[in-house]
Specification:
The protein is of the alpha+beta class and 390 residues long. It has 2 domains: 2-158, OB fold (Dihydrolipoamide Acetyltransferase, E2P) (Beta Barrel); 180-387, Chloramphenicol Acetyltransferase (2-Layer Sandwich). Helices cover 26% and strands 27% of the residues. The chain has 8 helices and 19 strands. The chain has helices at residues 112-121, 139-148, 153-158, 167-182, 195-207, 217-228, 277-293, 366-381; strands at 2-7, 17-23, 30-31, 36-41, 46-50, 55-60, 67-69, 73-79, 92-94, 185-193, 237-240, 245-248, 254-260, 263-265, 268-269, 306-310, 329-333, 337-343, 346-360. Strands 10, 13, 14, 15, 16, 17, 18 and 19 form an 8-stranded mixed sheet that branches. A 5-stranded antiparallel sheet has the order 7-2-4-5-9, covered by helices on one side. α6 (217-228) crosses α7 and α6 (217-228) crosses α8 (366-381). The chain starts with a strand and ends in a 9-residue tail after the last helix. The relative contact order is 0.12.
Length: 390
């Protein structure tokens, strides 16, 4: 019998460490070669690593949430053959809800976050009939289990659930903390009359073919930002605060903040200045679907030069969005509401919406940030200007 020592492999160029997201084996269990062994998360992706050999797990090191350097010993597997060193080509796959493994393993289908939560709650996924595609166990299935448990009311009232901040949630927390620590924010809120824009949007959707992407307000806002940037180039920039250099970009790579089950992600529409409204709408939908499915690539999630954020139907009256470094500006969309306003001395009902923006005050002065939003407002309130040549 030999002992195979399995170490954390280099799961991507430039990756020095990874975070353990979930274990798929326990000490004492037998594993087969290529059977899912562990999920790890880097700043680029979540990766599933398969067992390099068949045998029995005799030692396992590290728990979910631990960060370990490449080369760290993770598992010792007893094999029938002679002792072997670290395998140099372990099986690693980017994690996504679409991967199907029912034909390779009886392990229930579930995302790494679901497995981690189920383990923390003491729920065996094997006992659950998943309601997701292909029987995949989802968070809703775990919620149903919790609701079905008969717990005395006093226990429910006094119970405290501890949730360890790991994985993508920890990355988001650290990024937001870093942004607020490094960037002196200032926020500016302006109301916009989008009555004419909404009429145009409905008309364009009615005239579009069945294959055309549905136009929401976001493509118009993005188009307005693109039109305004030549007058205010300082907002489409990166600030390298370590080097003391501001890099103004000619191309507009628009980040679109997208809420997913795992947390907030920001997919990027490349060269949005070269796209028309329907192309922008189609790209928003494509990237948002990939982000929510956990399939967006690193290239699709990095490189934005300015970001828009929308709370959708929640909207609210105003917000104070956080600038994502090294960018210097972010524009938030609030809810559209009908309310009375004064026009030419008359009270009329108009569709009104607030734009909530934040800027890096080290780079963008208050006057410049407000002027930029006023320019965007002008394009949205007179939407015909959106279609004039830049």
């Amino acid at each position: 019998m030999g002992m195979h020592v399995f170490r954390l492999p280099d799961v991507g160029e430039g990756i020095a460490e990874a975070e353990i997201v979930a274990w798929h084996v326990n000490v004492g269990e037998s594993v087969k070669e290529d059977q899912p062994l562990i999920d790890v998360m880097t700043e680029k992706a979540t990766v599933e690593i398969g067992a390099p050999v068949s045998g029995k797990v005799v030692e396992r090191k590290g728990e979910a949430g631990d960060r370990v350097p490449v080369g760290t010993e993770l598992v010792v597997i007893a094999t029938d053959g002679e002792a072997r060193g670290q395998t140099t080509t372990p099986v690693a796959r980017s994690s996504s809800p679409a991967r199907g493994q029912a034909d390779r393993s009886p392990r229930p289908l579930a995302a790494p976050a679901v497995r981690t939560r189920a383990a923390a709650l003491g729920i065996d996924l094997v006992t659950i009939d998943g309601t997701g595609p292909g029987g995949r166990v989802q968070h809703e299935d775990l919620d149903a289990i919790l609701l079905s448990r008969a717990v005395p009311m006093d226990s429910r009232r006094n119970a405290v659930e501890e949730i360890r901040v790991i994985g993508l949630r920890r990355q988001i927390a650290e990024a937001m903390q870093d942004a607020k620590r490094r960037i002196p924010h200032f926020s500016y809120v302006e109301e916009v009359d989008v009555s004419a824009l909404e009429e145009l949007r409905r008309d364009l959707n009615a005239r579009a073919g069945e294959d055309a992407a549905k136009l929401t307000l976001l493509p118009f806002l993005i188009r307005g930002i693109v039109k305004a940037i030549p007058e205010h180039p300082g907002v489409n920039a990166h600030f390298d605060d370590a080097a003391g250099i501001i890099r103004r970009h000619a191309a507009v790579h628009m980040g679109v903040a997208t809420q997913t089950r795992r947390g907030l992600l920001v997919p990027v529409i490349r060269n949005v200045e070269a796209r028309d409204l329907h192309d922008i709408a189609a790209e928003i939908r494509r990237l948002s679907d990939l982000a929510r499915a956990g399939k967006a690539s690193r290239e699709e999630l990095t490189g934005s030069t300015i970001t828009v954020s929308s709370l959708g139907p929640l909207g609210g009256i105003a917000a104070t969005p956080i600038v994502k470094p090294p960018e210097v500006a972010i524009i938030g969309v609030n809810r559209i509401v009908e309310r009375p306003v004064v026009r030419d001395g008359q009270i009329v009902i108009r569709k009104m919406m607030n734009l909530s923006s934040s800027f890096d005050h080290r780079v963008v002065d208050g006057f410049d940030g407000a002027s930029f939003i006023q320019t965007v407002k002008g394009y949205l309130e007179t939407p015909a200007r959106l279609f004039m040549e830049l």
